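Hi P.,

Sorry for the delay on this. The queue was packed all week, but I finally got your sequence through. Input first:
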Amino acid sequence: RMSGWQEKISTSFPQIADLIREADYWADQDGQTKIQDKHVDKAIENRIYRSNMIERRLQDMIDRGTLMIDVKGEVVGQVNGLAVYDYGDYMFGKPSRITASTSMGREGIINIEREADMSGNIHNKGVLVLSGYMRKKYAQDKPLSVSASIAFEQSYGGVDGDSASSTEIYALLSSLSGVPIRQYIAVTGSVNQNGGVQAIGGVNQKIEGFYHCCLATKLTGKQGVIIPESNLKDLMLRKDVLQAVKEGKFHIYAVRTIDEGIEILTGKKAGTRKADGTYPRGTINALVDAKLKELAVGLKAFSNEDQKKKKGQTARSGKKE
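Then the structure:
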């Protein structure tokens, strides 16, 4: 866990020596002459407790409803993303609400964080990749006549990284299709223009962060986290999370594509494009495609009507009395 890899062991001897000394203390308190695994666990727990004041305060704000996070129910255009907070000697994850709003227009995808100068370069790139994915998948036979705004709600310290790009796509697809997203499943994962979900950092902290948010209310057996399949080799979770997963109280879903993820989040089939270019009726992709066609036709009709009005006004203003 210290090394960040399942296949490697950390050689940071000062940290390891500190942990051994503290475990030895707890073994002595327990009347044992040898350090056992429970003493190491006790040392780790106390080390976390000494460093997690900010994490506990954020959780208190979520519990009180100051930070608005839903871990039950279903909502259209809203997904629980996951962020990592790094304070040097301690890292932890917490969910962050991501919303998408769509309408007829030509603006494309608007990154609200970027417009407010709160978005880093990597996050900006992620939104551009998201736009490329939407154009490739849904705009081959029609223009992408949509204005969509994406926001990290209650985010005041800036956003960077592309680990939420898949989450943003899910929120966008939900808004366009009208199909609600399960709020008891959080999401992390980068995405490419082909719809492949890519590995991200801090996967353990993100899973544990959402687990503790769910635990603070009550584990229902439905809650879980969607992660990239390529991050499975990085999983080194705390014992309480592993136990909850083994008992079926919490779930970890590994996906390779956006289509796999949207099926888990909505309970509906994503739908594979047929030879004639359409999607099976009632699937997420079919609903999104139909909505985008509706917006394209509506915008064209509106533009034609607007041009006729302008021509009429020009003709009237040019008449001599």
